[in-house]
Structures are given as C-alpha cells and as structure tokens.
Model the fold of this input.
Amino acid sequence: MGARPSPTERQRRLGAELRRMRLSAGVSAEKAAGLLGIDRPRLSQIEQGSRAITLDRLRTLACNCDCADEEYVNALAAMAEPNQRGWWDRYRGSLPAGLLDIAELEAHSPHLRTALAVHIPGLLQTSDHALAIFRVAVPPLPEHEVALRLAFRLERQQILDSATPARYTGIVHEAALRMQFGGAKVAKAQLKHLLGKSEQDNITVLAIPFGAGAFPGSGQTLAYAEGPVPQLDTVQVDSTHGPEYLHGDAQLAKYRAHLDWMTQIALPPQESRDLIHSIAEEL
Done:
C-alpha cells in the first residue's frame, strides 16, 4: 500500500504515538527502521500518518521499545486495523476534512466533554438552530452546502442514541442559552430539545449562570474526547480556520483542569434544567 496523500487526524495521531513510543525508549529512527525491515523514509511516513503500519510491525516496535502497557498497545493496534471506514467517509470530498475528523474522533470516544459560551453544543442542536448558524457563515454558504452540513451534523448526533451510546457532558454558559439563533421560536424549541436530551441517562447538561463570574478560556469552544486509554485522550478546539487537535500531556492536563473548573462553577444537573426551563418560558 502506498503513501496516503491526506491522512486523517486519527491516522496522524497513531503515527505521533508510535514516534513518541520510540523516542521515549531512546530508539533511533535507523534502529527502528531496521527492526521493522523498512527504510528510514518509510518509517518517517508511518510516524507522520501518511503510511499504514501492519499489526505485526506495530507490536514488534512496541516490544523493542519496552512498552509493557498492553491496553495501550492494543488500543494502538485497533487504530492500525486496515480498511477502517465510517459513515463520515461518504462525505469525503464534499465536506472539509476537519469536519470528518471530528466525527471520527467522536465515534471512537466513550466519553465526550464539551464547553461552550455562546453556542449550544452541536450534538444537542435542533435542525432549525443548526440551519440558523450555518446561514450566518462568512463567506455565505450556498444552500446545497448548508443542506450537506445539516445532514452531516444530524448523523453525528446518532452517537448519543445508538445501542451503546457515548457518555456526554455538555457545559453551556447562560449566554449561549439566551442567544436567539433563528429567532425566539427557534430558540425556545432548541431549549426544550436541550431539556429533553438532558434527561437521557448518558447525557449531562450543566449550565453556568451569569452570576458564576469568571472562568478560564475566555469563552473558547472546546471538546475533550476520552480515548480507550488515557494516553489517547484528545482535545479539539475550534477556530475560524477549522478544528485544531491537541494531545500533548501538558495540553491534556491544562484542558482537564479547564473543564473541571467550569464544572465546579456550573449549576448541578437539576438546577441547570431549571435555569434552561426559566429562560425558555421567557421567550
């Protein structure tokens, strides 16, 4: 199999983990390539995520890097399984790759935590609310692109309603609850939908009232996706140019602390529902 012209974020992450494993063990690129029976350029491609690694070679590398964490190695092997395709691949070539990477990240996470200051979480948005957001993009999106993004968002939401749904914790600031995207009628329906979803066993919605005061991050939208093992946790932050993915140890610790702080100042689940209900009744 040749090199991949455009590796996915999951493929790049696998390569980064293999490189981290090698460097932590003090194994040179030349030695690792020799152990795997490949040349150094091919090893570099593997570590960049632009070329696949066989399961046998992955386990050979782990063994020779003295990686005794079996759960971690098994999780890497699952990432390296060949011919992995998800529902999001139907959109490849039609939507930005960064959006597809978000769906793939969510699909492989048993627990997702998000924090938003001015938006309702995408996984909990109604169609009308999502449409209102898509229609204020700069530059404006053509209608067929809006329809495509809406269909994609609705498919993403299925991870919360599947036979084995992901656990989800959404922290939402009162500012987001009061934003009337699409007008009062759309906003009220969105809040009612949010209340309904918050009753699901796998979904926790926490509201931060205005009175809670300051919190870290200056309102930055972020998602923390737990991996099958803690080493494979990932933070995804939004920017105007698309999603950014972070997974360094210091970065993960920083955003865990960020989310823990916001959780502490948020209202408990029932009080959060009460606040959402009161705002909806004002509309």
Remarks:
- The mean pLDDT is 95.
- The longest strand covers residues 167-173.
- Strands lie at 111-116, 167-173, 203-208, 222-225, 234-237, 244-246.
